[in-house]
Amino acid sequence: MSGPVATLVNDYKAKTSSSGPRWEAAADVVVLGSGAAGLSTALRLRERGLHVLVVTKGELGDGNTRWAQGGIAAVLDGASGSGGVQDGGDSVSAHAEDTATAGAGLCEPEAVAEIVAGGAEAVATLRRFGAVFDEAESGSNGARELARTREGGHSALRVIHAGGDATGAEVQRALVSAATGGAVPVLERHVALDAVRTAAGRIVGVTVLDDRGCPGVVHAPALVLATGGLGQLYGATSNPELATGDGVALALRAGATVADLEFVQFHPTVLYAPGARGRRPLVTEAVRGEGAVLVDATGARVMAGVHPLADLAPRDVVSAAVIRHLAAAPGGVDDHVFLDATGIDGFAARFPTVRAACEAAGVDPVREPIPVAPAAHFACGGVVAGTDGRTPVPGLYAVGEVARTGLHGANRLASNSLLEGLVVGGRAADAVAADLASCRPVRPGGVPAGTGAGAVTSPDPASSFGAAALEVAPRDAVQRAMSRYAAIGRDADGLAVAGSVLDLAVSGARGSGSRGVAWTRERVEDAALTLVARALVAAASARTESRGCHVRTDFPERDDASWRRSQTIRLSPSGQPVLAEAAALEAA
């Protein structure tokens, strides 16, 4: 590391080696998160000459990106600098159409067009950083081009991949290598507590907490959220332990709005194990793209007659079909189905990650069907942001899964997530640079006193959190309630129960004296999960229809007349997540 930010970060241990004194540092921009979206943003910011600091809860290579198996959905052509790859009859407009179809009427056309059009440049940038993607022979002349596969909801072969089913790992490797080689300073094993804001609401920094409970503050006029998803709201998920919705909670406390939280995509094929909780190995959708089919315990096809694309239908369709099928308990099995990939030639070479996970669970995918079940996978909603990452809060930006850009709508198209993180990450960096150049940033020495949720004048976590953030329900209670009542197949009664369970769990924590408990990373995460769970339940309760990932058993039909629109949520003056309309009424 080099530069003034690096010096402050390198001094960190010396400043905190005694009985936990607080510390301060400064940067032009702080990026929270070190996945594809965060590192793409940080690297572009570095190229723009800005002093950027990446803050991550784990180590630099951790996060959800490395677990992505399928690939990057992108239409490539020779003019894009992508290595002379031809489009093979595909087009950006076709990719946009597939994205909109999967999004079930809630995608924003302009956002879709802008992000999808940036795919070729994003892939070219990754290759410039050293990413190596799988290749295949093209035609009879032995020429090589990037190999492409097809996943659910796609009308063409446009998903590029690396290491067979290790695309995320290769993307993360290349970005980490570029970040370390480019001297991007990183503060590892620190969780963000809250945004520091002026009385007028402008971002001027962020408070953080290390694994020992020592708080600090980084002063910066720009804060980029790249914190990933919220899969840990549920008992079974494809997400790592880091995915606790921290960015959504921080943004709410900073005065931002969130949208489309009710649309949580459940991946239909996560490796099943009896009673397993936490992160479960993913069986990539590309396995079905290569010919695998879903069957029940009797061997009957699960997707027969359900959708014209059968096993390659969009994820929301497949996950819902699996849940409906299990309700009948065919063959006496009511908690999982099977993915029959025994007909795929060269399975071990094409899907080494899936093979290794199966073998660790005692399953031979070459000889027997793989037991699978749906699990929480991707948050289609998040912090309302443009395709340049800007939010309505001055100085606050959001990129990647934590953001709601309008690309995904009610259901994400397979392999559009890495695409979004890479494209919006680069655009956000340019937006930050432009914003900092056009206005006079507030310097660390003159941070004004702030008021309201998220406004702080010290790195003390107890003072930085507003009343809503102090409400912490035990994680186990949150996960059980959300898995039982707010996963696939919701209804009004169940959502009401989920809300009551959350309220009782918070009340119980208050009664046990939790307000006097020291803040730790786990408690910060649990506070975020509690707040985000309440926001999600509020959104799901209000949407009285079924659309995309949001399936209401008491309102099974899609209602375009009333509900072809997104819902926004913000914190009310009393610190509770409510629909924006209700928040406005309470304020009045």
Structure description:
This protein has 588 residues and is of the alpha/beta class. It contains 19 helices and 25 strands. The strands form 7 sheets. It has a 5-stranded parallel beta sheet. A 5-stranded mixed beta sheet has the order 23-21-15-24-25. Strand 11 and strand 12 form a beta hairpin. Mean pLDDT is 86; it is low at 1-6, 12-21, 78-87 and 442-468.
Keywords:
about 600 residues; alpha/beta; five-stranded parallel β-sheet; five-stranded mixed β-sheet; about 35% helix; disordered N terminus
Radius of gyration: 23 Å
Q: Please state roughly what percent of the residues sit in beta strands, choosing from under 5%, 5-15%, 15-25%, 25-35%, 35-45% or over 45%.
A: 15-25%
Physical arrangement of strands within the biggest beta sheet? 9-3-2-13-22
For the biggest sheet, the summary is: 5 strands, parallel
Report the helical percentage.
Answer: 25-40%
* Quantity of strands, as a count: 25
Quaternary state reads: single chain
Mean pLDDT: 86
Q: How many helices in DSSP terms?
A: 19
Quick description:
34% of the residues lie in helices and 17% in strands. It contains 19 helices and 25 strands. The relative contact order is 0.16.
